[in-house]
Amino acid sequence: MSRFFSSLRFRLILLVLFAILSAGAVVLHSGLEQRQLVASQAKEEALRLVRLISNNHRQLIEGASHFLSVLAQLSPVRKCETASCASLFADLLKQYPWLLNIGAAYQDGNIFASAVPLPRPINIADRSYSQSALKTRRFAIGDYQLATHYEQKGGR
């Protein structure tokens, strides 16, 4: 047995085994480094996308705020002229098809004009955006409205 451990065959087997283990360690190490690099790149790309989406969202909100500020200065809106506002809002809705509706409400929350005819009177006084806008006299954003496009367009 001691002769086997001192033989050339044993030494060659040991050398091949060491080379295989070394190569395996290098492959494993390279794989781990590659995995960390890919994870780091994915994180950077996700952050870049989040920043881009955040910037686009901010621009949309600023645009909506400006749009509504201009709309609020129009005479039919300031005078709460229901028919004129409904017609104006309907025309605007055709120009901006990504909007579901455009409406205006009295300070008590009752909607007096809507681009899409409403199936019943609606009061928004209890909505967070309405309360915030009345309190701050500034543009306000509320919670998401859970309704389908069809329901918003006046369907049943």
Give the tags:
156 residues; Beta-Lactamase; 2 domains; rod-shaped; disordered C terminus
Model description:
- With 156 residues, the protein is mostly helical.
- The chain is 65% helix and 4% strand.
- The protein is built from six helices and two strands.
- The protein has a two-stranded antiparallel sheet.
- The model is unreliable at 149-156 (pLDDT under 50).
Concise overview:
The chain is mainly alpha-helical. Helix content is 65%, strand content 4%. The protein is rod-shaped, with a radius of gyration of 33 Å.
Structural class: mainly alpha
The third-level CATH topology of the largest domain is: Beta-Lactamase
Query: Judging from the principal axes of the Cα atoms, what is the shape?
Result: rod-shaped
Query: What is the arithmetic mean of pLDDT?
Result: 89
Helix content: 55-70%
Number of strands: 2
Supply the CATH class of the largest domain: Alpha Beta
Radius of gyration: 33 Å
N-to-C series of helices and strands: HHHHEEHH
Estimate nothing, just give the exact number of structural domains. 2
- Strand residue content: under 5%
How far is it from the N-terminal to the C-terminal residue, by CA?
Answer: 91 Å
Q: Spans of 5+ residues with little confidence (pLDDT < 50)?
A: 149-156
- Total of helices: 6
